[in-house]
Amino acid sequence: MDYLLTEEQKMIQDLAHDIAETKIKPKRAYYDETEEFPWDLVRIMAQSDLFGIYIEEKYGGMGFGIFELCLAIEELSKACGGISLALAASALGTFPIILFGNEQQKQKYLPSLAKGEKLAAFGLTEPEAGSDAGSIRTQAKKDGDFYILNGTKQWITNGGEAEIYTIIAITDPHKGARGASAFIVEKGTKGFNFGKKEKKLGIRASATRELIFTDCKIPKENLLGREGMGFIVAMKTFDATRPGVAAQALGIAQGAFEEALEYAHKRKQFGHPISSFQAVQHMLADMATQIEAARALTYATARMIDAGKSAGSKESAMAKLMASDVAMKVTIDAIQIFGGYGYMKDYPVEKMMRDAKITQIYEGTNQIQRNVIALELVKELSRRNLC
């Protein structure tokens, strides 16, 4: 479909596509196997200004929005969902500063993030607080002009590699979810350490680590917004970043589809390309249709958010839900089309299936997305009835 992209949007898309094809593809198997963090490729993305796409020009960014960020993430993810995550996860850690940071905080942190000189990460999940984010235990106690952080964050993307972390911690244990606050914590702060690097099924080029806070002393100026706004910061951040997860899923799905289509055209059985068999044709048709439907929803959601329209929790959850489910189905079907070859590491579709799975889990499992969507639908009905 033609999404009527502007010349600037096409430029971003083409730039990300070129990086994916010429830089990422040749190295994706290496990074998947070694689990190293792809700093050489991150620097290439930084030199191409991809980290500044969604950051205002006055802070050194390109001044575009979530939609343009999604275009870049999708193209990079066609080659490797794990490598693209360096950009997407940095955006996740940066958006709390964009949305809730004061001018001093923005001036201090956004320029280096826009240039890709530093990466960001977001810390909400804990060992006992995954889908139940209200059960976080990490505490931040006020002590004069400082806050003292104690606790552990788990499964943090870009953990250990990022320099800037936005952390949700409890400042008033008696208020439940309303007692959480958001903070900016810099790598190297005394009392801030990292646990082991996790070994994962997929996105193995991405670093996932524990964040450990032991009497970690941070200045009160690092509080984002006001005390008690932590969950508002987290939820509003997810509203802005879930389309990015959808874009990652879209890219993985599109990459797997293109591999499967090309393979089906070349692979012969019974004297004919398997693309001539109706059973395979129907699989390809379904894959293409599902991807396009998910793309339309994701693009529309991102554009509505950028325009300041009503798109928010419900639409972002829908986009993330649909695109990630499509990515999982498409990658599994791609393996089926490849047959036995698809199960082998010599071909990229088995990696794409492994990478796709996480998109159904992080930034809220797809079961949680359904809860969010249903809750918003009920709220909308209640508002209409009151009118």
Automatic annotation (TrEMBL):
<dbReference type="GO" id="GO:0050660">
    <property type="term" value="F:flavin adenine dinucleotide binding"/>
</dbReference>
<dbReference type="Pfam" id="PF00441">
    <property type="entry name" value="Acyl-CoA_dh_1"/>
</dbReference>
<dbReference type="InterPro" id="IPR006089">
    <property type="entry name" value="Acyl-CoA_DH_CS"/>
</dbReference>
<keyword id="KW-0274">FAD</keyword>
<dbReference type="InterPro" id="IPR009075">
    <property type="entry name" value="AcylCo_DH/oxidase_C"/>
</dbReference>
<feature type="domain" description="Acyl-CoA dehydrogenase/oxidase C-terminal">
    <location>
        <begin position="228"/>
        <end position="374"/>
    </location>
</feature>
<protein>
    <submittedName>
        <fullName>Acyl-CoA dehydrogenase</fullName>
        <ecNumber>1.3.99.-</ecNumber>
    </submittedName>
</protein>
<dbReference type="Pfam" id="PF02770">
    <property type="entry name" value="Acyl-CoA_dh_M"/>
</dbReference>
<dbReference type="InterPro" id="IPR046373">
    <property type="entry name" value="Acyl-CoA_Oxase/DH_mid-dom_sf"/>
</dbReference>
<dbReference type="InterPro" id="IPR013786">
    <property type="entry name" value="AcylCoA_DH/ox_N"/>
</dbReference>
<keyword id="KW-0560">Oxidoreductase</keyword>
<dbReference type="InterPro" id="IPR009100">
    <property type="entry name" value="AcylCoA_DH/oxidase_NM_dom_sf"/>
</dbReference>
<feature type="domain" description="Acyl-CoA oxidase/dehydrogenase middle">
    <location>
        <begin position="121"/>
        <end position="216"/>
    </location>
</feature>
<keyword id="KW-0285">Flavoprotein</keyword>
<dbReference type="InterPro" id="IPR037069">
    <property type="entry name" value="AcylCoA_DH/ox_N_sf"/>
</dbReference>
<dbReference type="GO" id="GO:0003995">
    <property type="term" value="F:acyl-CoA dehydrogenase activity"/>
</dbReference>
<dbReference type="InterPro" id="IPR036250">
    <property type="entry name" value="AcylCo_DH-like_C"/>
</dbReference>
<dbReference type="Pfam" id="PF02771">
    <property type="entry name" value="Acyl-CoA_dh_N"/>
</dbReference>
<comment type="similarity">
    <text>Belongs to the acyl-CoA dehydrogenase family.</text>
</comment>
<feature type="domain" description="Acyl-CoA dehydrogenase/oxidase N-terminal">
    <location>
        <begin position="6"/>
        <end position="117"/>
    </location>
</feature>
<dbReference type="InterPro" id="IPR006091">
    <property type="entry name" value="Acyl-CoA_Oxase/DH_mid-dom"/>
</dbReference>
